Amino acid sequence: MTHQSDIEIARAADKLPIGDIAARLGMQPTDIVPYGHDKAKVGQGFIRSVQDRPDGKLILVTAINPTPAGEGKTTTTVGLGDGLNRIGKKAMICIREASLGPNFGMKGGAAGGGYAQIVPMEDMNLHFTGDFHAITAAHSLLSAMIDNHVYWGNEQEIDIRRITWRRVVDMNDRALRQITASLGGVSNGFPRETGYDITVASEVMAILCLAEDLKDLERRLGNIIIGYRRDKSPIYCRDIKAAGAMTVLLKDAMQPNLVQTLENNPAFVHGGPFANIAHGCNSVIATKTALKLADYVVTEAGFGADLGAEKFMNIKCRKAGIAPSVVVVVATVRAMKMNGGLAKDQLGQEDTDAVRRGCDNLGRHIENVKSFGVPVVVAINHFVTDTDAEVDAIKDYVTSHGCQAILSRHWELGSEGSADLAKKVAELADSDAAHFAPLYRDEMPLFEKIKTIATRIYRADEVMADKKIRTQLKEWEAAGYGHLPICMAKTQYSFSTDPNLRGAPTGHSVPIREVRLAAGAGFIVVVCGEIMTMPGLPRTPSAEFIHLNEEGQIEGLF
Q1: Domain 131-249, what fold?
Q2: Which residue has the higher pLDDT, 558 or 202?
Q3: CB atoms within 10 A of CB 496
Q4: Overall pTM surpassing 0.90 (yes/no)
Q5: Is 545 a catalytic residue?
Q6: Is residue 73 annotated as a catalytic residue, yes or no?
């Protein structure tokens, strides 16, 4: 097998015209809106036409807590989708779109890797079909209309000290985290403090990903709370008549994007909320449509299972009325060794003891996922440096936790390398062993929901929240928001709120810094520890290495 880079492999892909991929899913040429030759939007009319079909089986791919060693969750999602098609199953893949900010920052692109990729990879990691730009524009329209409303007499009596709606840009720009707006005199409005979040942290992104259709989208946008009056009564987006125009800007962005894997299998790539500061799942409309078009739908949830999978189960499944039939937890030998205490430069040498020490993190994720009533299989995403003894150490550990770990070599071999994993996943999905239930009931008080996640998923001893936060939660309950699920905003690197605490820590506490009501999206955001809703660029950002080569091709993106 040649050691080509991901981007070289993607460039050499033998892509089919996107119309051919659509035809395999039963779509007519008029059912899609092509964006060039290799990507298309799926029309609302077609989506409506398949609603009476039965649903396929939903397979969630999640992972251990991320480490700098890499886990390959998206790569495994793509590899598993290809593997299911290879063993004769009709399968589709649903993943999120990539945010420009991290692509030019630390992370690089996100479309799988090796021989388990979705293409066109460069497009997906840049402007794609413009969805994120549309979300940025809709969010910015609301920001502009709020300040304009205040400027022209403030009919709604907005207290400018209590405007909660910030601004967004899809770029890592720490200088914008906290700003003063409307300086420069009377004609520019009333000076006030505000700030920017990254687009993927916008409530508009969360709404787009949870809305069932355009009507539901407009209703949810109208429910956004933009700020408060002096008497602390909330002011909604609909009060300043912004929801209709925002919906118009988002009309095309609501349609799922159809693309293909290297093996020409269909994939929806749609929506992209971060999993640490938002709910971390691709759109409900893409997932539910895929379930009508395929017998098996493989989707992923961001970061480790303590964040992405927990929110997938408690927010997305609850809101969308869907349930996973099986969950795949991705682990690597390298990540186990890092969790076992080795430094990144020590990962190349065999160390089965470090693997065993690091397995505590994996074990806890297995237990947590099982607590939702769903069968679990572990995918060991293979790296060429892995030794048989190290792989066996993970397999033995997982067996002792009552499930199976399967080595998957999709990165190196494509679907041929993931066929064994696919067989096991299909067998578990078909066994109907899942008895899915969310972690907490809608009726549970908000603070109890937070405590339930902190103690049962993070294994914390306590939740620390001052009186102001507890009072705020009680006020929201009194206002009719007590039934909403919780979206925990915390570090992805640990079960705790300390990013340096690897493994499976116990005895820690979860400090709550602030709580935010996302009334349009329909959840309460609970900000824990030092979590940023606007990332910064690292000392040496990826952008320094991204350029066009002599042939006009993009280099350095992946």
Answers
A1: Domain 2, N(10)-formyltetrahydrofolate synthetase (3.30.1510)
A2: 202
A3: 25
A4: yes
A5: no
A6: yes
